[in-house]
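Readers outside the structure-tokenisation community will struggle with the description of the input data as it stands. For illustration, here is how one protein appears when written out as sequence plus structure tokens:
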Amino acid sequence: MTTPSTGSAPPTAGRQGNYAGGVTRLVAFAADAGASWGIFTLSVAAITFALKLVTGTTVDLTKGTVSAVLVVISFVVWEFVYFAYQWSLSGKTIGMALLGIRVVATDGDAIAVRQAVIRTITLPLSFLLFGLGFLGILLNKDRHAWHDRMAKTVVVYSWDARAARLRWLAKQEPTATG
């Protein structure tokens, strides 16, 4: 008795551990920008509402130079906390988790708090000079941006697409033939 040929393609290798590409990193950063801006805006709205409840007067945090400067300073501090805390905690932000990438040390270990802080502080340097700091993501085989080099980190895929596909296939109900 011979077994019929299934004609299935050979399994593809997973992406886990490979350097993350430029498009994936850009989309993750855009998701993070949206998430951090949304959380910050909701927080300012909640503070404004709480101040209105306590004082009975409408408080506008955008009027006046002192309050505008406080909002800008608060936003800069918030962005630092948003990125540094998440990178030091799990190696990934909300956007990075959605796209299956993470920051690790160049030797593959989890990044230390010091590396997360350095990466966060030097991230704006990659934007200087029209984004030339990101050119390494497109041109180098290790896909380092300036802030990656300074913090001695790399961004890699953290999920295995093949394993996820196999788990999904295992959960499907068998179909009855005949």
Notes: The helical segments are 22-55, 65-90, 94-99, 113-131, 135-139, 146-151, 161-171. The chain is about 60% helix and 5% strand. The chain has one domain: 22-162.
